[in-house]
Specification:
By secondary structure, this protein is of the alpha/beta class. It is built from 25 helices and 19 strands.
Length: 653
């Protein structure tokens, strides 16, 4: 446990140091060393340590939020662009793509991104372990249900050459790797909760958590530390012969109750499930909403296929309005597991977009090329590029040069290195986190600012661990650990997929990456308060804390099968996302019409209205954390921009 693990580029104490400076000069040595422009010495995807919202990517924005960043002494760069895009995530990159298609490839575009890498939440983690390249997603996981994507999201996939059939054909055998080895989902009951560490793995054919009837058998439950009553309640819950737990109500009354009752309360108060058995279900809302069963409507549980709803007579799950809204299939409509999971998640899509926008930055062009592609980050911001991507640049102010109704240019000020700098744009698209927009653009109407502030993004962590081998997983017969009351609630071997020359480990003797998740929720508080408290706690956690807890947890899970963290862990990358998932409306806390209709009273609609030369994108503008939402909002923002410009040439004169 005392052996050091690779964690390059970790800057401990940065937030405290900057916070203590307050409104000190940006040119001071302390500030210069911690701004986003400081950490550019190594290849961003290969950096380990604290990543995601890494040190230097957000501290200046916090000074702006607190009113401690004077916007003066700004160095005008003498640059004017047809379009300035704030945010280099999938929404910002897609906006640049759409604008070029409509205006022409000679359009001058600048993308400003606060992180030292492009892609926003779609980040790639790379490790070189014993001569083998190991890749995993550091954020956005997959292209989920692409057949349900909106027109514009599908167009981006097509334009970038993403071919689902070719991907699936290449992974027909690979995706069955773990099941062919007999690996299953194991449930780890920790000693802090259950008095003794205990791993329980379902017997028989491998099952996933969605196949609850196959997993929760009498034999399985007898090996758990649950009380006899809790075991009996679990067997009743998964029995095909279910009572109507809401007998006497009409279907409409049942749905209204389920929409306004938490999943936890429904299970405890209506299904009468023993509280011990809630251990299996408390985290049910995390993957979609960054909150657990206490803050997720029971109606969402029905839609997601959890047991206990079959005999309520609710009918078939409707396709409904939300089937055509971004992310609508996730938690509110029928789910489809027909997803595309590239080894680095949707970083492959971001990399394809950058390859198209700045072709001299890489030789890679196809989805297969992206498996092992490298990018020359020094070529992203060359003056000769029609599209320039300027990393490590935190935008702190956007203002019209004159009256917003008549201005022909906007001034965009950003922090880069040890200076405040400014550029001009004939149009601006804010494809950044929407809650920061009122701070960078105080000239917005008060009602719009309030709407932009409404959504509170969900905090979460994806910890990527590079292992020299995964023999302990094979020895235990486990590919994924569910451990909801431990530091990380899930520990899993990364999904078995190949991409071009990037080949997934076929043998347990080969290096592999682990995907560990931690959702910073606080059960019992209202949802938005859970996000706020969780974010504050996350920002206070050092990399050393994550390293210690990760090594300790893996030792407890895998140690009995011969795992030694000092020997077997090659590197750790903590993808910290204090502002993670976009806020989605929730009928426990928000007006029901915001959740189940397209009403224009939703804060995301009020907040995303164009103002002068400014349009607003990002998945926040759809109140959905999904990739198709980010692309849809990019297209809308570009459409608004084009409508302001002179046709038929789509360029302001």
């Amino acid at each position: 446990m005392g052996c050091p693990i690779a964690r390059r580029d970790f800057l401990n104490g940065t937030a405290v140091a900057i916070g203590s400076i307050g409104a000190a000069s940006l040119s001071s040595p302390a500030m210069a060393g911690s701004l986003a422009g400081a950490a550019t010495e190594s290849y961003p995807p290969a950096k380990t340590g604290m990543r995601g919202s890494h040190p230097g990517s957000f501290e200046v924005a916090h000074l702006l939020r607190d009113g401690e960043l004077p916007i003066d002494d700004v160095a005008d760069q003498g640059e004017t662009y047809d379009l300035v895009i704030v945010g280099g995530g999938i929404s910002g990159l897609s906006a640049a793509h759409f604008y070029r298609k409509l205006v022409g490839r000679d359009a001058r575009i600048l993308i400003l991104e606060n992180h030292d890498d492009f892609g926003g939440h779609a980040k790639r983690n790379e490790f070189m372990v014993d001569g083998k390249l190991v890749v995993i997603n550091g954020g956005t996981l997959n292209i989920e249900a692409p057949q349900r994507y909106n027109r514009w999201a599908r167009q981006v996939l097509d334009d970038m050459g993403i071919d689902a059939e070719r991907y699936r054909a290449a992974n027909t055998d690979t995706e069955k790797l773990y099941s062919s080895m007999g690996l299953r989902r194991g449930h780890f009951f920790d000693k802090e909760t259950w008095k003794k560490d205990r791993l329980v793995v379902p017997q028989g054919a491998p099952t996933n958590f969605g196949d609850m009837r196959a997993m929760f058998t009498t034999e399985f439950l007898e090996r758990t530390p649950l009380s006899p009553k809790a075991r009996a309640d679990m067997m009743r819950l998964v029995s095909p012969d279910q009572p109507d737990y809401l007998a006497g109500m009409s279907v409409a009354e049942k749905k209204e109750l389920l929409a306004t009752t938490s999943f936890r309360d429904y299970y405890l108060n209506y299904v009468k499930l023993d509280p011990e058995a809630m251990w299996f279900f408390q985290q049910m809302g995390n993957p979609s909403f960054c909150v657990g069963a206490d803050a997720t409507p029971a109606l969402f549980g029905w839609v997601q296929g959890y047991p206990g709803f079959e005999s309520l007579g609710l009918g078939d799950i409707p396709e409904g309005l939300f089937a055509d809204l971004p992310g609508g299939q996730h938690g509110r409509q029928k789910e489809s597991w027909d997803a595309i999971h590239f080894p680095d998640g949707n970083a492959t899509l971001a990399r394809l977009l950058v390859s198209s926008l700045v072709p001299n930055a890489t030789k890679a062009r196809t989805q297969e090329d992206m498996g092992t592609a490298t990018f020359d980050y020094g070529k992203l911001d060359l003056p000769s590029n029609p599209v320039r991507i300027r990393l490590s640049s935190i935008v702190v102010n956007v203002r019209h040069d004159g009256d917003p109704a008549t201005a022909t240019e906007a001034v965009v000020t950003y922090a880069n290195g040890d200076k405040l700098k400014s550029v001009r744009g004939k149009s601006v698209i804010l494809a950044c986190w929407n809650m920061v927009i009122p701070y960078m653009m105080p000239e917005l109407p008060a009602e719009q600012q309030e709407a932009l502030h409404y959504g509170v993004k969900g905090p979460l962590v994806y910890t990527s661990v590079a292992l020299r081998n995964w023999k302990a997983f094979k020895n235990l017969g486990v590919s994924t650990f569910s451990c909801p009351t431990m530091f990380h609630d899930t520990v899993a071997l990364t999904e078995a997929v190949d991409l071009g020359a990037l080949s997934h480990a076929r043998s347990a003797d080969q290096p592999i990456a682990l995907h560990l998740t931690k959702f910073m929720n606080k059960p019992g508080l209202p949802r938005r308060d859970q996000h706020r408290v969780g974010r504050a706690e996350l920002l206070e956690m050092s990399f050393e804390t994550f390293e210690r807890e990760t090594r300790s947890q893996l030792a407890r899970l895998l140690g009995p099968a011969g795992f030694d963290p000092a020997r077997d862990i090659a590197a750790i990358t903590v993808n910290r996302w204090p502002h993670g998932y976009a806020y989605t409306y929730n009928s426990l806390y928000d007006p029901v019409e915001w959740v189940y209709s397209e009403t224009n009273s939703r804060p995301c609609v009020v907040g995303r209205q164009p103002y002068g030369l400014i349009s607003i994108a990002n998945s926040d503008a759809a109140a959905s954390p999904h990739t198709d939402a980010a692309i849809l909002e990019a297209h809308r923002a570009v459409s608004e921009t084009i409508e302001r410009e002179t046709y038929p040439f789509a360029r302001r004169t």
